[in-house]
Amino acid sequence: MLVGTALEMAGFRVVTAADGAAALRHFREHPADCVVLDVVMPGMNGFDVCSAMRESPDCRHVPILMQTSLDDMESVNRAYNAGATDFSSKGINPMLLAQRVKFLVRAKQTQDQLRESEARVRYLAYYDPLTALPNRQRLLQILEQQVAFAKARQRGLAVLMLDIDNFSRINDTQGQAVGDALLKEVAHRLQTCLRDSQRAPDQAGDSVEMNDINDWVARTGGDEFALALPGIATADAAQVVARRVQLALARPFLFAQQEIPLAATMGISLYPGDAATGEALIKNADAAMHHGKKSWQGGMEFFNKSISTRAAKHLSMEADLRKALERGEFTLNYQPRLALKDLRVEAVEALLRWKHPQKGFIAPDEFIPLAEQSGLIVEIGDWVLREASAQVRRWRDAGWPGWQVAVNVSGVQFRDGSLVSRVSRAIGAAGIDSRMIELEFTEGALIEYSAAVSKAVKSLKELGVATALDDFGTGYSSLSYLRHFPIDTLKIDRAFVRDIASTSGGNAPLVDAIIAMAKSLGLSTVAEGVETEAQWQYLKTRDANQVQGFLFCRPLPIADLERWHADWLHANQLSPASVA
Ligand code: C2E
Ligand code: CA
Ligand code: CA
């Protein structure tokens, strides 16, 4: 009674129960924000009530405070094992106890908010808000399951990519609202073409689900959709589905008493004949579709090996890549990261360039995956670290402002186990402050090799280098590792920045959600890939720390970067002295 009164005086609404069974019943009817539980009660004891509450989904996260008698260590242990959040001994002043409940409730609210933003980020990262279909990222996960399943059972799998013909014309002439409605209707009709009904999207993007091996429709881009069709092994069987899709789309669409005819071009690829991974299946179906677009629209095209002779190309590229280091064919370009508040350069990102003796510059997106597959990235990455550190030193010697240099690190480098010592050697050799180096890695790098990686990240932190999570939002978007890894900065992937101002109303819920969440975790944020004035205008009203993108400056060789910076200071009327 004393406790109840004290809680009421502290502003809580209190529901009391005479015994454990009644408490469980009450809780089911009116979930509470906090439970204060005695140990000795008629019927069920407090430990059993506590365990039972923890099993109910509504109560999993509710703080439970158990009242044990003074100095009873055994009860304290049992309370802990039963899932209690905290305990207090019975002798305690009820007013103090009420204050403790206040703390517990506030902690829970903070956690709830974090969980909510996590769920939201996850939803937005995996589903298309317009059609509620899985997006490309989620499709990749689904295909991963489907490929594994097909492999284990020696079954086939077809991926069908579909692009609406002349959609942009419809959008331009009829307006975006009609365009949106049309996409929704297409999504709906595609779902009717599936053999089993697609379940409503949930927010459990992370678990392996049997559902993943059903048929799926995903929206992979503006007017692009994909069908994942497990069990379809032959071109004939795939064609049957493709026909069904064509028929479903052939009925004219009715909007505001107007009939809009529609056609789509499709590309199909088959597992295992055309490709062995989800990503490659999508790529090949996509290639087939674009090939089809060129010849005639409204048709369908199968992937055909001659469309791509990539495999052979890759082999010779790998041989060249092996020689590139000794021949000194690598260089670094640097792209500035600017403070959002005043557009001063705070850091630069080092981006690798390969100048091939015959083929000229090759983009990192082309050769990094190859370097990763072959393990060459470990040595190449080491060169990048040493070169970036040397650059920090050169700037310092020249009296240039202290720009941090961000270096990209691949998951393979983590797995190799030598990363920490290599970083420390590069920094030592250059004689620079380790704070001046920031390492950027992706969510994938953290998740894939978790145990070793966790140790490596901690050691890097002890070394004093800064850490950033790259391409945030495109990967697993499970925030749990943000709490386990000492990360300083989130880089919001440019895919989300690109969405800013391209959507109607110009809002970017995912960007906002990521910034809010990063803030609540005490991380700073960088918006990557800022290309347009509109994106920049939007970001200015937001709470991110830095911006980076072509709008401000492309990645440049050192000399060009320094020239750009002089012009930049001038154009923005910043004084060089205050930068240092
Ligand atoms: P990233 O880490 O996300 O790097 C940013 C990429 O975005 C760079 O491409 C940069 O040129 C590009 N970018 C910057 N601003 C904009 C913009 O406003 N719009 C658009 N569309 N793009 C913009 P880049 O240099 O081709 O690098 C591609 C990727 O290659 C990098 O993506 C990174 O994952 C990888 N990479 C580059 N250098 C290294 C390296 O030294 N080591 C490793 N492991 N990976 C590297
Ligand atoms: Ca990066
Ligand atoms: Ca990035």
Provide a count of the helices. 23
Largest sheet: 8 strands, mixed, barrel
Described by the principal axes of the CA atoms, the overall outline is globular
| CATH hierarchy, class of the largest domain | Alpha Beta
What labels would you give this structure?
TIM Barrel, eight-stranded mixed beta barrel, binds calcium ion, 580 residues, 3 domains, single chain, five-stranded mixed beta sheet, alpha/beta, 48% helix, binds ligand C2E, Alpha-Beta Plaits, Rossmann fold, globular
Describe the overall structure.
There is one protein chain. The chain starts with a helix and ends with a helix. The protein folds into three domains: 2-125, Response regulator (Rossmann fold, 3-Layer(aba) Sandwich); 136-303, Alpha-Beta Plaits (2-Layer Sandwich), CATH 3.30.70.270; 320-574, Alpha-Beta Barrel (TIM Barrel), CATH 3.20.20.450. Helix 2 (20-29) packs parallel to helix 3 (46-55) and helix 7 crosses helix 8. By secondary structure, the protein is α/β, with parallel strands linked by helices. Helix content is 48%, strand content 18%. The model is unreliable at 197-208 (pLDDT under 50). One calcium ion binds next to loops. One calcium ion is lined by residues 470-471, 491, 493, 528.
